[in-house]
Amino acid sequence: MLAFKNYAVFKGRAPRAEFWWFMLFMWIFILIAGGLDILFHWWGVLGSLVDLALILPHLAVSTRRLHDIGRSGWWLVVYWFFYVMLFGGVVVLVFNAKQIQAMFNQTAPENSGLIGVALFTGLIFLIYTVLDQVLLIFDCLPSQLGSNKYGPNPYGYGPAVKEQAFLTEAGPDVGIAPANQAPVLSPTQQAAQAQARAQQDMDALALLEKFADLRDKGVLTPEEFERKKEEILSKF
After folding, report:
1. What would the DSSP string read from start to end of 116-155?
2. Are 7 and 60 in contact (CB under 8 A)?
């Protein structure tokens, strides 16, 4: 896999396919390691080693995925900063679980320090959750067309990419015909336009024949027929 090949490359871009294939294999490895730890009673040693081995490529491919959509890798720095703070808060609360339980049971005096840590950890958890969802959305976004400041498009420059990049660089007025110049139509559009005009001509002819028949039957006077004919012909 390309993500494992570039396990320590933080520069450049990684498309969605590269990122999500890495995530799939990463979780497969973690689940297998966790299963073996349980099966052989290894106390999580293998799982911990797998986690350590995957940290660097995970960070690298996540950074390149952000670059691919034009975002800075600093998003990950902020995300992991709040993750560490959340982890630290949870550890403090766990180590003081007995005292917290006694406070709830009103068998121990209130500890304002622990209450502050609990409230602070709750706030950090909310911020971390929002960041987690934002990064998930970022990871699902398509690659930016053409090059960006982090490198070329990982899929290369196909015709559509070239056209979009040219229009983006040249400005919004490129490709728009002047007001006094008819737009250039493709052969398919020209054929459809000709067919529509032919159908319009046939409809007008049928309507003239209908009015002529009404004139012959005396329903319309010759003057009325001429007026109807002029109205139809004036539309062309």
Report:
1. HHHHHHHHHHHHHHHHHHHHHHHHHSPPPSS-BTTBS-TT
2. yes
Contact 68, 150 (CB under 8 A): yes
The model carries a pTM of: 0.61
Half-sphere exposure of 227 (CA within 13 A, CB side): 5
33: part of which helix (H) or strand (E)?
helix 16-40
Nearby residues of 90 by Cβ (< 8 Å), 6 or more positions away: 121
Other residues' Cβ atoms within 10 Å of the Cβ of residue 18:
19
The tens digit of pLDDT for each residue in 159-214 reads 445 445 545 555 555 445 455 555 666 666 676 677 777 777 777 777 778 878 77
pLDDT at 189: 67
The first and second tokens of residue 43, run together, are 């106390």
Helices (H), 41-111: 45-68, 74-95, 97-104
Residue with token string 């320090």: 113
- Distance of CA 206 to CAs 48, 195, 209, 235, Å? 84, 17, 5, 15
Tally the residues of the chain: 236
pLDDT in tens, 91-103: 999 998 888 888 8
Instruction: Please state, in angstroms and as integers, the Cα–Cα distance from residue 91 to each residue in 53, 75, 98, 116, 230, following that order.
Output: 24, 25, 13, 14, 90
- CA dist., res. 107 & res. 185, Å (int): 84
Helix axes 16-40, 112-140, angle to 10 degrees: 130
β partners of residue 151: 148
Phi, psi of 151 (to 5 degrees): 140, 180
Phi, psi of 235 (to 5 degrees): -80, -5
